[in-house]
């Protein structure tokens, strides 16, 4: 990992294994991950580009799902993994995710002849502005830019040319490789999104399941990306939920609701603290006060930060899944 200031000065660099033998980083393009997981399922198991229009309970205990294309589905178990703006979460009584006060540009730089970067995670810190990039394949490099916009995230923009222009203006005087990454990103990979989260307050937030409907990942616990744990937690959710359901299905239909409740009770102590911690880390990294940023760059990052405590949240263990 390499951490630099906006003027290109190296604040710190290190190898994960040198500081903590338990740590490693694996960067994977999201599309490749989703395709790999989907290809492990029987053909036509996943129906892509489907949008839920309506959800309601039926008299026989099943759940009626109506898609926006008119398709109607009757489900014995519904697993809502439909993202941050989940209509299933809304139906279950969850509040809308809360804006964190800053937004992010993201993209994927493509180098057909091979990207020139080593297998490093690279961060650049400015005042109220930060960026990062990391190779995800021999030819592709993921990048992001986070910038403060405290009052509102502003209007939604989908024009790739305008998104590219705005992203470059934010980091106009920053290291040249970041500008080049933005230029080498195909239009369809560039996006701008407000960063949001939802804190699952004990006793106040609805449970993860209601009857035979349960939430997974961002649909339940959206968190800011400052710890890099959003998708990781969704995968953890899936593993635990799979185990709970597998045991319940063997025991009969009556055990399913209990299994869904047990999943939520087991996962909450993991996801709630991570959501809070990600929010606090983001708030610290987005400081725009000159004195605070100077202390961060000259004292905190070079001399005080230790990798083990910083990344302890990534340690998650579970028994191997049985075939």
UniProtKB/TrEMBL annotation:
PANTHER family: FAD/NAD(P)-BINDING OXIDOREDUCTASE FAMILY PROTEIN, FAD_NAD(P)-BINDING OXIDOREDUCTASE FAMILY PROTEIN. Pfam families: FAD_binding_3 (PF01494). Belongs to the 3-hydroxybenzoate 6-hydroxylase family. The keyword Nucleotide-binding does not apply. Residues 34-271 form the FAD-binding domain. Keywords: Monooxygenase, Oxidoreductase. InterPro entries: FAD-bd, FAD/NAD-bd_sf, MOase. One of its GO terms (molecular function) is FAD binding. The lineage of its organism: Eukaryota, Viridiplantae, Streptophyta, Embryophyta, Tracheophyta. This is FAD-binding domain-containing protein.
């Amino acid at each position: 990992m390499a951490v630099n200031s906006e003027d290109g000065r190296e604040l710190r660099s290190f190898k994960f294994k040198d500081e903590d033998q338990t740590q490693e980083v694996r960067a994977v393009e999201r599309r490749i991950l989703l395709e790999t997981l989907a290809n492990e399922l029987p053909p036509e198991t996943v129906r892509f580009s489907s949008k839920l229009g309506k959800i309601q309970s039926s008299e026989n205990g099943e759940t009626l799902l109506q898609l926006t294309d008119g398709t109607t589905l009757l489900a014995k178990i519904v697993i809502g993994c439909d993202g941050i703006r989940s209509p299933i979460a809304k139906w279950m009584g969850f509040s809308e995710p809360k804006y964190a006060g800053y937004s992010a540009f993201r993209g994927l730089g493509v180098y057909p002849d091979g990207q020139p970067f080593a297998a490093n995670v690279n961060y650049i810190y400015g005042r109220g502005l930060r960026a990062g990039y990391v190779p995800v394949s021999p030819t592709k490099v993921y990048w992001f830019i986070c910038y403060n916009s405290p009052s509102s995230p502003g209007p939604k923009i989908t024009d790739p040319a305008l998104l590219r222009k705005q992203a470059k203006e934010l980091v106009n005087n920053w290291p040249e490789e970041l500008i080049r990454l933005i230029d080498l990103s195909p239009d369809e990979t560039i996006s701008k999104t407000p960063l949001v989260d939802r804190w699952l307050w004990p006793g106040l937030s609805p449970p993860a399941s209601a009857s035979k409907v349960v939430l997974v990942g961002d649909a339940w616990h959206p968190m800011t990306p400052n710890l890099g744990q959003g998708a990781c937690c969704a995968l953890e959710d899936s593993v635990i939920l799979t185990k709970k359901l597998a045991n319940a299905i063997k025991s009969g239909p009556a055990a399913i609701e209990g299994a869904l409740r047990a999943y939520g009770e087991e996962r909450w102590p993991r996801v709630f603290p991570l959501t809070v911690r990600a929010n606090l880390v983001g708030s610290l990294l987005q400081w725009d006060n000159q004195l605070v940023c100077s202390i961060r760059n000259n004292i905190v990052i070079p001399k005080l930060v230790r990798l083990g405590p910083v990344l302890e949240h990534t340690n998650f263990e579970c028994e191997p899944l049985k075939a």
